[in-house]
Design a protein that fits this description.
This protein is mostly helical and 182 residues long. The protein has a single domain, classed as Fumarate Reductase Cytochrome B subunit. The protein is 69% helix and 4% strand. It contains seven helices and two strands. It has a two-stranded antiparallel sheet with strand order 1-2. The two termini are 20 Å apart.
């Protein structure tokens, strides 16, 4: 099959998102739901089997989400001008969601680095332990990681609500762009 035909089926179009965008979106949605559940378990059910069940993967999935949001951002840029028009407010909302999805795991990584204990994700060492803590990094991350995480939860809930409620002028549900694609 010619490359341009394969590529065009993968790319986004004004009438819907392509399969790459949809897979990245729904994979990240599932991983974020797990992250939100792990944060809620840590906050509301500390030192319980529920917390243990969700929390063990929180830091590894945080790094994976950072990699995925960067890939998703690059894919969005590669599809600039092809994507469905979401309007100014929805576009700003998506920008804020992307910025939070980059900032939150970055802060988590800064905290891990600042603690000096080293960090591994999925059993792969990202950085080794060090002799001393960098207090300013830990304090920065402690001040913002959780707050921005809860903010992301609230905005993601609003995103879901708007996706269900919003219709285009032709009556088509906006959600269909991300469920059915083209």
């Amino acid at each position: 099959m010619p490359t341009h035909l394969t590529q065009s089926r993968l790319m986004d179009r004004p009438d819907g998102y392509g399969p790459v965008s949809r897979i990245l979106h729904w994979l990240m949605a599932a991983l974020l739901a797990w992250q939100f559940a792990s944060a809620a378990a840590r906050q509301f059910a500390p030192d319980t089997p529920i917390e243990d069940f969700f929390w063990f993967s929180h830091t590894s999935l945080g790094l994976l989400l950072l990699v995925l949001v960067l890939a998703r951002g690059a894919w969005a840029l590669a599809n600039a001008g092809r994507r469905p028009d979401s309007g100014l407010l929805a576009g700003l909302g998506h920008l804020v969601l992307y910025l939070l999805m980059m900032a939150i795991p970055t802060l988590g990584l800064l905290r891990a680095y600042g603690r000096g204990r080293g960090y591994s994700a999925f059993g792969i060492q990202v950085f080794p332990p060090r002799d001393r803590e960098i207090e300013s990094l830990v304090e920065l991350a402690n001040a913002w990681h959780g707050l921005l995480g809860w903010t992301l939860i609230a905005l993601a809930a609003g995103h879901v609500c708007m996706a269900f409620l919003h219709r285009r002028a032709d009556g088509r549900r906006v959600l269909s762009y991300m469920t059915k694609g083209q």
